[in-house]
């Protein structure tokens, strides 16, 4: 099982404050002989009609010297997990969770904007000190 | 500029034997303030009518102890480069280049098969001793 991201607990608290029930920590995906571990999975009752929304969350701290390298690793995990999740648990939506500061460093720049415009990934940002979610990008 | 993959030269020779003219080694993509470097770019005249096919090639050796980690890193680079390439040089098709042995380790297993079935990436395999391309997967 991989080591927890340093912002794991503050991100988890932010989700709980936002009304999510954390159902898995971590969330284990078995695929063939391989085990994949996504950091968290959670559920939230949206409305009685719409039912329960299910998410999986991969938390990334973006603290290495190379933002591009951090982005590549985060993106690779996201795409792999998303494809496996679509097969095993297709109702669950995968989000990348990053701090506000990481969002500004990567996704406010052209290289990150291209990924958001092309809807390559879904993400939310959180403030680790206040332990709150600050935006959702679908 | 990143270090060359250990199979860079044998992959390049395999492409040349397959009739490709290597136009860039490496191929530099500028996006905003960031520089990305894809390992190779090449061109080949298909037929007089169809004109020239243009490719970019990212070579990955898959030699770390974790195949999943290698796959995540390769996939992250591929998706990032592909999205930037679509913006800057949309006629050029990106391929991941891996050895036959790496293909068997990853893409013959369920986790890799899902990626191929979902057409997440295009790749070719090569034999580094014989310096030949052994298959194209589009």
Quick structural summary:
Chain A is α/β, with parallel strands linked by helices and 138 residues long.
How would you portray this structure in words?
2 copies of one chain form a homodimer. Chain A has 138 residues and is an alpha/beta fold. Chain A has one domain (8-137): Trna Endonuclease, Chain: A, domain 1. The first copy, chain A, is 34% helix and 36% strand. Chain A has 4 helices and 8 strands, in the order αβββββαβααββ. In chain A, the strands form 2 sheets. Chain A has a 6-stranded mixed sheet, sandwiched between helices. A two-stranded antiparallel ribbon of chain A has the order 2-3. Chain A is globular and about 40 Å long. Chain A starts with 7 loop residues before the first helix and ends with a strand. The mean pLDDT of chain A is 94. At the A-B interface, helix 2 and helix 4 of A face helix 2 and helix 4 of B.
N-to-C SSE string of chain A, H for helix and E for strand: HEEEEEHEHHEE
Main interface pair?
A: A-B, 26 and 26 residues
Largest sheet of chain A: 6 strands, mixed
> What is the tally of beta strands of chain A?
8
> What general form of chain A does the structure show?
globular
Straight-line distance between termini of chain A: 28 Å
Radius of gyration of chain A (CA) equals 15 Å
Uncertain spans of chain A: none
The portion of residues assigned to helices of chain A is 25-40%
CATH class of chain A: Alpha Beta
SS content category of chain A: alpha/beta
Q: What's the total helix number of chain A?
A: 4
Strand content of chain A: 35-45%
Mean pLDDT of chain A: 94
Number of domains of chain A: 1
Question: Based on the structure, what is the oligomeric state of the protein chains?
Answer: homodimer
Briefly note the CATH topology name of chain A.
Answer: Trna Endonuclease, Chain: A, domain 1
């Amino acid at each position: 099982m991989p080591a927890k991201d340093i912002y794991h607990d503050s991100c988890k608290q932010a989700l709980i404050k936002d009304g999510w029930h954390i159902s898995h920590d971590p969330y284990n995906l078995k695929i063939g002989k391989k085990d994949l571990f996504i950091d968290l999975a959670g559920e939230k009752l949206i409305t009685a009609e719409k039912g329960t929304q299910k998410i999986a969350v991969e938390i990334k701290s973006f603290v290495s010297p190379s933002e591009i390298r951090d982005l590549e690793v985060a993106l690779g995990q996201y795409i792999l997990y998303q494809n496996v999740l679509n097969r095993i648990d297709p109702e669950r939506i995968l989000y990348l969770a990053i701090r506000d500061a990481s969002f500004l460093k990567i996704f406010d720049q052209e290289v990150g904007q291209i990924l958001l415009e092309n809807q390559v990934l879904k993400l939310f940002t959180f403030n680790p000190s206040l332990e709150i979610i600050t935006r959702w990008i679908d």
